[in-house]
Amino acid sequence: xxxxxxxxxxxxxxxxxxxxxxxxxxxxxxxxxxxxxxxxxxxxxxxxxxxxxxxxxxxxxxxxxxxxxxxxxxxxxxxxxxxxxxxxxxxxxxxxxxxxxxxxxxxxxxxxxxxxxxxxxxxxxxxxxxxxxxxxxxxxxxxxxxxxxxxxxxxxxxxxxxxxxxxxxxxxxxxxxxxxxxxxxxxxxxxxxxxxxxxxxxxxxxxxxxxxxxxxxxxxxxxxxxxxxxxxxxxxxxxxxxxxxxxxxxxxxxxxxxxxxxxxxxxxxxxxxxxxxxxxxxxxxxxxxxxxxxx
Length: 295
What we know:
Residues 207-283 form the Cation efflux protein cytoplasmic domain. This protein is mainly alpha-helical. The protein folds into two domains: 3-201, Alpha-lytic protease prodomain-like (Up-down Bundle); 208-286, Cation efflux protein, cytoplasmic domain (Alpha-Beta Plaits). Helices cover 69% and strands 9% of the residues. The protein contains eight helices and three strands; from the N terminus they run H-H-H-H-H-H-H-E-E-H-E. It has a three-stranded mixed beta sheet with strand order 1-2-3, covered by helices on one side. A hairpin with a 2-residue loop joins strand 1 and strand 2 (239-247).
């Protein structure tokens, strides 16, 4: 089991524990806002399970039907997570509306808020772990799961503050208003996850900082070549795919041009960690000059 898979397994366990704690808070109080918070945690369990399955699938090596590997499974998973978050948001809106029409009294608010606070603290710690490790391991599924948990932390904190106001003001309708605000935040979070993860599915170029590393590696290791042009990049999970045209003198031997290609591939792999590099070697009459490197 890889490190990312272990983290994803831990996320599933934490999500189940947090769900149980939040349901206990709702059971004690009968609060619509706390029920909405617990409902979102059901989605947390589903997203953690989805992330675990996607990470395990993405770790499979390339095969005949998937020669470029299975890394995009993580982006597909992240989009699915975003969709589940949207479902949770609409479900919370429904509960908020029902509570607004028929307000319910809140029982044992202090105990319920204390229980909810424990769950929120646990989520805050684990969301930080997921986001940090997801970015370190370039795992879209872990980052998406972490951001969803962080959104849960924000909404839970808002619920705690809001219910405290309900207790202080004795305005029961505020309970449903808080739940509606939670739903709006959840919907925004879900749309953000979908928008960010769709970039990987649509072969979005590597981030700006990676492009800078790629250009630096090319300029420093292309000695003997005349020009690099047509640089294209995309990313899938931990792997960055790079292809470009390498212009060399027309009289250069195949063996010599191959040495340059090997040097460039080694430099790019060292700079990026995991890279699949495709180089098309061309003679000097194919030089483009404008917008090219090394020209």
